[in-house]
Amino acid sequence: MEQKAIIMDESAIRRAVARITYEILERNRGAENLCIVGILSRGVVLAERIARKIYELERAEVEFGALDITPFRDDRIANATHSAKSTIHFPVQDKRVVIVDDVLYTGRSCRAAIDAILAIGRPQCMQLAVLVDRGHRELPIRPDYIGKNVPTAQSETVRVSVREIDGTDCVVIYQNTDAEMRKE
Ligand SMILES: O=P(O)(O)OC[C@H]1O[C@H](OP(=O)(O)OP(=O)(O)O)[C@H](O)[C@@H]1O
Ligand SMILES: O=c1cc[nH]c(=O)[nH]1
């Protein structure tokens, strides 16, 4: 993969997370009954940042968890031996659940996340927050909160790096090589 452009740096990501947090609080009229669920791995880091920002703004400790969507994916043969690494230690029943992910592309990960949550309860509603929406949806899924809309070609890859996992905060677009495209 060849790097094409850095589309978000540390401050752009910080501002986007702050704006998304304000939008979540505005749309839900505060933090009551809210919970924030991040899709492993980088969605969890972003979800944690949103939860921290909610505390900073409202002094409210929203419930926060990590969702492992692997057993619910439609593009892999279900692996009965996979032990889901989800850490949702609270009931989602009747909650307002905000799902957080780094990149939204086909929408299949989000669909799997919706199923993973419905497997443990029936929330009042679910909403979706993503740092980057790169288009090319294959399912009728639309995010409620978007850090940045990034029109992309299908021959490109968007990678989000976060300090907690990758040592740096940035979003980069790469051009896939022909060999990489053939493997997809
Ligand atoms: O809308 P979609 O087409 O499902 O694509 C978006 C998903 O792809 C990435 O995960 P990936 O499967 O690459 O795994 P990773 O998060 O472990 O990198 C990203 O973190 C999203 O979860
Ligand atoms: O470009 C892409 C596609 C799927 N998932 C990503 O994280 N980036």
TrEMBL record:
<comment type="function">
    <text>Also displays a weak uracil phosphoribosyltransferase activity which is not physiologically significant.</text>
</comment>
<keyword id="KW-0808">Transferase</keyword>
<dbReference type="InterPro" id="IPR029057">
    <property type="entry name" value="PRTase-like"/>
</dbReference>
<comment type="similarity">
    <text>Belongs to the purine/pyrimidine phosphoribosyltransferase family. PyrR subfamily.</text>
</comment>
<comment type="function">
    <text>Regulates transcriptional attenuation of the pyrimidine nucleotide (pyr) operon by binding in a uridine-dependent manner to specific sites on pyr mRNA. This disrupts an antiterminator hairpin in the RNA and favors formation of a downstream transcription terminator, leading to a reduced expression of downstream genes.</text>
</comment>
<keyword id="KW-0694">RNA-binding</keyword>
<dbReference type="GO" id="GO:0003723">
    <property type="term" value="F:RNA binding"/>
</dbReference>
<dbReference type="Pfam" id="PF00156">
    <property type="entry name" value="Pribosyltran"/>
</dbReference>
<dbReference type="InterPro" id="IPR000836">
    <property type="entry name" value="PRTase_dom"/>
</dbReference>
<comment type="subunit">
    <text>Homodimer and homohexamer; in equilibrium.</text>
</comment>
<feature type="short sequence motif" description="PRPP-binding">
    <location>
        <begin position="97"/>
        <end position="109"/>
    </location>
</feature>
<dbReference type="InterPro" id="IPR023050">
    <property type="entry name" value="PyrR"/>
</dbReference>
<keyword id="KW-0806">Transcription termination</keyword>
<dbReference type="InterPro" id="IPR050137">
    <property type="entry name" value="PyrR_bifunctional"/>
</dbReference>
<keyword id="KW-0805">Transcription regulation</keyword>
<dbReference type="GO" id="GO:0006353">
    <property type="term" value="P:DNA-templated transcription termination"/>
</dbReference>
<keyword id="KW-0804">Transcription</keyword>
<protein>
    <recommendedName>
        <fullName>Bifunctional protein PyrR</fullName>
        <ecNumber>2.4.2.9</ecNumber>
    </recommendedName>
</protein>
<dbReference type="GO" id="GO:0004845">
    <property type="term" value="F:uracil phosphoribosyltransferase activity"/>
</dbReference>
<keyword id="KW-0328">Glycosyltransferase</keyword>
<feature type="domain" description="Phosphoribosyltransferase">
    <location>
        <begin position="9"/>
        <end position="161"/>
    </location>
</feature>
